[in-house]
Each structure stands twice: as C-alpha cells, then as structure tokens.
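note to self: dont lose this again. the chain is below, predicted strucutre after it. 184 aa total, dont forget to put it in the shared folder this time
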Amino acid sequence: MRSSDADILIIPGLNNSGPGHWQTRWEQKLSTARRVEQDNWERPDHARWTGAVRDAVNRAEKPVILVAHSLGALAVAHAAQEFTPGKVAGAFFVAPPSEDWMRAHPLPLGGFETHPRAPLPFPSLLVASRNDPHASYDANEDLANAWGSAILDAGEAGHINADSGHGPWPEGLMSFAAFLSRLK
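---
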C-alpha cells in the first residue's frame, strides 16, 4: 500500500507531540496524514480519547493507517472493537507505556491503566525500545503478542520521542514504509 492510498491518522500520547517530534514531522511530510485531536492532552479521559480515535477512523474515506505513539497506542487498542469492520488497514505502534508505569504515574490517566489484551482485527507493528523509561522491552513484547502485532526492536532508543533524540527519526520512517509495503 502507498501512503497516498490511505488516510494516515497520527495519534499522539500524553501531552501531544510537539513541533520537534517525529509524529509532527511525519504529519507535515505525508500528504494524507492528519492528527487525531483530543480535548485535553494533559489529562486523558478514556471515553473521550477512545471516542475521538473511533470517530476519526469511522469517518475516514480511504483505508486507514494508524500511527500511534505512547498513550495514543493504548487509545487505539481500547477503541479497536468500535471501528467499522475492515476500515483499518494497519497500525504502526511506537513505545506504548506499561501498565506498571501507567499505575505509578502521578496524574490520573483516565482509565488507561489496564491494557486491552484481545488480538487486534488488523495487521500491526509495535516498535519497542530496550531502555524505554515507560515500559520494559519484555512488557512491550508481551503486549505485541497479545495484540497479534509484529515487534520491531529499536535498540536503546529511550521513549522514541523528541526528548530521546528522535525528532526526524529516519529509521522509523523507513520501518513505516516497509510496514506499508506489506499491507494490501
């Protein structure tokens, strides 16, 4: 699949993705990409966040490719059963936080503390770091297995965000292109 054949939905996590974040750069670079906006990026509300993702997917006119980072990946997984069947062609997940990290977070995280464990009804790839402060590689590997996602080892890449030096993240874009090439 080519990116121009899909509606690419960018789904940031907690606090959104700023101007230097790879998600923002991809949104600017990919002609069919758009961000799924949330009412409050600092205080996630489970029903509102998953509802925004669900509505964006179900309104899309082309097959949907989801590009979700951190808490955004969890919003996708929580909303997945409410997507119009067959609407999502694939999901590219990057660095979802672990349940342990979510429970220990000082702010209430709006019902995202427990991760869905059901297999996702679309192909997906989960990119995980070996030294992510928000989740161990093993926790992400376990989550990928539960969701039926392939896993990509990003090495020691931190939380794979601007703070960990992943502004442009060309390796991620190459992995995303390879993932797209395998989709129908």
